[in-house]
Design goal:
Ribosomal Protein L30, Chain: A, 39% helix, 105 residues, 3 helices, three-stranded antiparallel beta sheet, alpha+beta
Length: 105
């Protein structure tokens, strides 16, 4: 059965409300240079935690070394925090003071 037309709203067009799905805000994971962490370890971290290629890992490591810091990756907040935590934990286990921070993109 079709509903009877409502005299008050006759001829009105029904519209459908659509909620747009917003992409999560992204955050950068930044690695910081220090005087003790080896470049080999930074390359290892970039390959193992951030899934970077050999070439990307070396390029980012050199940027950390020369400029003092570099972006290792950009992720949603929870993933960025988890990766930064893994970096710091792995560095401490290996005896390095490597610092990874998270900042808005």
């Amino acid at each position: 059965m079709c509903p009877l037309p409502d005299e008050e709203h006759e001829g009105a067009v029904l519209t459908e409300d659509r909620n747009e799905v917003q992409k999560p805000r992204l955050f950068k994971v930044r690695l910081h240079n220090d005087d003790y962490t080896t470049m080999d370890f930074v390359v290892f971290v970039l390959k193992s935690i951030f899934n970077k290629s050999d070439a990307e890992s070396v390029t980012i490591t050199m940027k950390v070394h020369v400029e003092g810091s570099a972006i290792a990756g950009v992720y949603p907040h929870e993933i960025a925090n988890a990766k930064a935590g893994k970096v710091v934990n792995l560095a401490r286990v290996r005896g390095f003071p490597l610092l990874a921070t998270v900042e808005p993109d």
